[in-house]
Design goal:
Elements lengths: L6 H8 L3 H11 L4 E3 L1 H14 L4 E6 L12 H11 L3 E6 L3 H4 L14 H16 L7 E5 L1 H16 L4 H4 L3 H8 L10 H13 L3 E5 L3 H13 L6 E5 L25 H9 L3 H11 L4 H12 L4 H17 L1 H16 L9 E4 L3 E3 H7 L6 H9 L3 E3 L2 E2 L6 E3 L1 E7 L3 E7 L1
Parallel strand pairs: 2-3, 2-5, 3-4, 5-6, 7-13
Antiparallel strand pairs: 1-6, 8-11, 9-10, 9-12, 12-13
């Protein structure tokens, strides 16, 4: 049963006491699906009597060293449940990363080397430590038990799942029907991820909506091993700054954790007022009551920009520290509230007598492509020395220029 409703309705449907109603509401807040809610209530009742916490698992494959806010949505939910007193398990998929997650792929994903996995894991620890209470977090690596399986153990594990079951997965089905190759080792990925839940005796697993098949595999294998199946929470994929596509570096709509504090603050201040609530719900750790209070304030006439500023401050503080957050706030106010040019601008030097503005925008990194440069000029988003650029064929001669694209990107270009 999938149930997405408010806590009062949950209590009415399942006849729960208010204390369970409130706790389940925290499990449910912001999630896409909670599966199966009746089983979750049973687990909560059981562990309350035993005075023990539930074991809640999140698996992360260290596939990339570059992470953005979209990757942290599941970690924020994990921290919320950790604050309820449950035991959270951060599983680093060093073994599964060598297989390569086929989720959403239309071709076989290349496997990572051991060196890449080790290096990327360090980034994940840094990220997780900014959100989770690491002293209360159980950190495990699935190579502990997967490497020990050996060929015989892996064959026995594979015997528990049919090929037909694997082909229920959307991306496998599409590739199979389209005549696109599926490497045999790709079937092992959801199998091994599910086996992780067996070893860790997971009561609940969290993942993005794109991980649903893998999470359900954990339930199925736990049943095969005589365990009570884990409940599942799937979290939505965070939209990017444009509010349309999911956050992605390829879409250039992302907020990277390695962005400067000023860039993170400025990017978050640029999102729409409607999208702001989506980001706050999925990424803030201030709690539901704070969010509801702010929504009520905005409905009463409070400027949503102030709420956005508090949220941007929280995110910068989380990843760069309180001092950096104060500096980013001050810089934002100087640049946009007082229209001041920031200090210590990045400088780009070009040698020549004259350059097209479009060429300078692209080659200085202010826009990702020529077409995007034309689009930004057409929108009136390009300024040179505070003057709006309206000529698509504008050129600059030798000299020094302050060039700005949108509200956040501003550099000094020197032509010599």
């Amino acid at each position: 049963m999938y149930l997405r409703t408010n806590s009062k309705n949950i209590a009415k449907v399942l006849h729960m006491p208010n204390s369970f109603s409130e706790e389940v509401s925290i499990f449910e807040d912001g999630c896409e699906e909670l599966f199966v809610i009746e089983e979750l209530v049973e687990k909560l009742e059981k562990y309350k009597k035993l005075k023990k916490p539930m074991r809640i698992k999140l698996g992360l494959d260290p596939t990339s060293p570059d992470l953005h806010l979209g990757h942290t949505v599941v970690l924020v939910k994990l921290r919320q449940l950790q604050d309820l007193g449950h035991k959270v398990i951060l599983l680093i998929g060093d073994f599964t990363a060598m297989i390569g997650d086929p989720t959403g792929r239309n071709v076989t994903r290349p496997s990572l080397s051991n060196e890449e996995i080790i290096n990327n894991s360090q980034t994940y620890f840094s990220q997780a430590g900014s959100i989770l209470n690491m002293t209360e977090t159980e950190v495990r690596y699935n190579s502990e038990w997967c490497s020990a399986l050996g060929a015989e153990g892996l064959i026995k594990l594979a015997s528990k799942i049919t090929v037909a079951r694997m082909l229920e997965r959307d991306d496998f089905t599409k590739r199979y029907k389209g005549g696109v190759a599926i490497a045999l080792h790709e079937f092992l990925y959801p199998l091994v991820q599910g086996y992780d839940s067996v070893i860790l005796k997971s009561d609940l697993e969290i993942g993005g909506t794109d991980q649903k098949f893998n999470l359900l595999m954990g339930r199925e294998l736990q049943k095969n091993f005589g365990q009570n199946p884990q409940c599942i929470i799937t979290m939505p994929l965070l939209e990017g700054l444009d509010g349309v596509e999911k956050m992605s570096k390829t879409k250039n709509n992302f907020v990277a954790l390695t962005d400067s504090p000023e860039d993170i603050y400025g990017k978050l201040m640029s999102i729409s007022d409607d999208l702001m609530w989506r980001y706050i719900t999925l990424l803030s750790l201030k709690g539901k009551s704070w969010i509801e209070e702010k929504k009520a304030n905005v409905s009463g006439g409070y400027n949503p920009k102030n709420v956005k500023s508090e949220f941007a401050f929280e995110i910068v503080d989380r990843f760069h520290g309180r001092n950096a957050a104060h500096r980013a706030l001050g810089e934002f106010e100087r640049r946009f509230a007082q229209n001041e040019v920031p200090e210590n601008l990045t400088e780009k030097v070009f040698t020549g007598s004259q350059f097209d503005v479009i060429f300078l925008l692209k080659n200085s990194g202010l826009v990702p492509s020529t077409s995007e440069g034309f689009r930004m000029i057409k929108q009136g988003a390009v300024r040179i020395n505070q003057e709006k650029v309206i000529d698509m064929n504008a050129k600059l001669k030798r000299g020094s220029y302050i060039v700005q694209v949108g509200k956040r990107k501003i550099i000094k270009i020197i032509i010599e």
